[in-house]
Design goal:
22% of the residues lie in helices and 39% in strands. It has 251 residues and is an alpha+beta fold. Helix 2 packs antiparallel against helix 3. It has 3 domains: 50 residues, no CATH class; 116 residues, Outer Surface Protein A, domain 3, CATH 3.90.930; 32 residues, no CATH class. Strand 3 and strand 4 form a beta hairpin. A 12-stranded antiparallel β-sheet has the order 1-2-5-6-7-8-9-10-11-12-13-14, with no helix packed on it. 6% of the residues are buried. It is elongated and about 115 Å long.
């Protein structure tokens, strides 16, 4: 059907359409510039509630995870989960350049059935292994141990150990399984899987102590002030027997 409207009506509608188009273009430009401005500006918050924060590199690799217990992350090596699942480590977990866990800060505490437990733990891991420097507080209803530990670990990738232990768990109980467990926890080239070398802190007997141990993790020098305030310096043999003591004990 031919358009029978007067020419001036068509011109008015065309002008209105042009105005609409111009306004829409201006609005889109404003929105785009606003989004760009927000994306390039730092945001400041007075207070924020969050269950988990992932700190990542530009390529998406994790460098740090801050989370509550429910959303806490499990162990990760080279960007892949291994070992046990998450959900039990509230705090901060650190990752190295290869997206492998290399330490963390965790904490907890609760009262149940009239008894309490409490803990705090800051650790740094050996490369491809577990913690070798850690500051730790453990309290089991008043039985407290707190201090700094420096340890040695064998150069065995922790993912290999976990895979071996998972395989052993599938074996039926018996001598074969027991022997396999002994092998997996045995020293590697004479080096124990774990050996505490230095401990300085307060033990469960309420003594302030400094323990220096050999490569096998056996204490060889012990400096302490016991719960009664008595100081002592002891030298021990590889079997843990005191071979020399200052001051000497008197009957």
């Amino acid at each position: 059907m031919p358009d029978i409207r007067p020419p001036d009506v068509n011109r008015r509608e065309l002008a209105i359409l042009r105005v609409y188009g111009l306004v829409a273009t201006l609005l889109l430009t404003v929105f785009a510039l606003s989004a760009f401005h927000q994306a390039t500006q730092k945001q400041r918050f007075t207070e924020i509630d969050v269950e988990r924060i992932n700190l990542i590199e530009p390529d998406g690799k994790l460098r740090m995870v801050i989370s509550d217990k429910a959303r806490s992350i499990g162990p990760i090596a080279y960007g892949k989960p291994f070992g046990y699942p998450g959900g039990n480590r509230p705090g901060i977990i650190f990752f190295n350049d290869e997206e492998t866990e290399n330490g963390g800060l965790t904490f907890g505490g609760r009262t149940e059935n009239g008894k309490f437990t409490s803990s705090g733990h800051l650790s740094f891991d050996q490369y491809n292994q577990d913690q070798v420097v850690y500051l730790q507080y453990i309290d089991d209803n008043g039985q407290r141990r707190m201090g700094l530990t420096i340890a040695d670990r064998a150069d065995v990738p922790i993912t290999d150990l976990v895979a071996q232990m998972d395989s052993i768990k599938k074996l039926p109980d018996g001598p074969a399984k027991d022997e396999a467990q002994k092998r997996v926890f045995a020293p590697r080239n004479g080096v124990p899987l774990f050996a505490e070398r230095v401990y300085v802190g307060r033990n469960r007997a309420k003594a302030a102590v400094l323990n220096l141990s050999d490569r096998a993790g056996k204490p060889r020098i012990r400096l302490q002030v016991d719960s009664l305030g008595t100081p002592s310096l002891e030298f021990l043999d590889v079997a843990g027997r005191v071979v020399s003591r200052l001051p000497e004990k008197t009957n």
